[in-house]
Amino acid sequence: MRIAIVDESASRAAIIREGLIAFDDCELFVLTERRGLVARIGEIAPDIVLMDLGNPSRDVLEEYFAVSRVLARPIAMFVDQSDEEAIAASVDAGVSAYVVDGLAAHRIRPLLDLAVRRFSAFSRLEKDLAEAKGKLAERESIDQAKRILMDSRGFTEPQAYAELRKTAMNQGKRIAEIAEAVLTAHRLLGGT
Predict the structure, then answer these.
(1) How many CA atoms lie within 13 A of 34 on its CB side?
(2) Cα-atom radius of gyration of the chain, to the nearest Å?
(3) Which residue positions does 4-aspartylphosphate occur at (predicted)?
(4) 112 in any annotated domain
(5) How many other CB atoms sit within 10 Å of the CB of residue 76?
(6) Domain for residue 118, yes or no?
(7) Helix, strand, coil distribution of the chain in percent, nearest 5
(8) What DSSP designation does 4 have?
(9) What is the pLDDT of residues 81-128, one digit of tens each?
């Protein structure tokens, strides 16, 4: 597992390293500069990012939340103090584990595992949501195309669907693709 440790304090980063050093399956990268952070993390391509911020100012916290929004990786963030607003912002930014006053070597590995599991669960939910939205959009296109065929050709709903299905089979395409073609043609020919 490739792990990027983001910490401007070498002593605090050492605590995280100590918590992971006993595990053979870890390749560690310590990043101490905030400048160019997203690019550096992109070069490393870690499996997980551990951010230790200590007592960050609101601006620093916002900067790191912006970084976490860009990365499609599990992120565990360690801070010494927090408030409801910072916690809400971390959730919105996609932080998988937000740990307040919990930086200790023996806690690192369980928190890392938690962050990876939460990220995986959240990623599955996002994928399922995207699929559901895609299917809903396809269904809406098919329904609109059926209405166009019903209005323009006098078909019943089953006949309109059968026509879309037959055309899709003849052209080796999905019904949704044929429905989109019907909608495009309808718009080009002055339909609403």
Answers:
(1) 14
(2) 25
(3) 52
(4) no
(5) 25
(6) no
(7) 60, 15, 25
(8) E
(9) 777 887 787 777 778 888 887 677 788 888 888 888 988 898 899 899
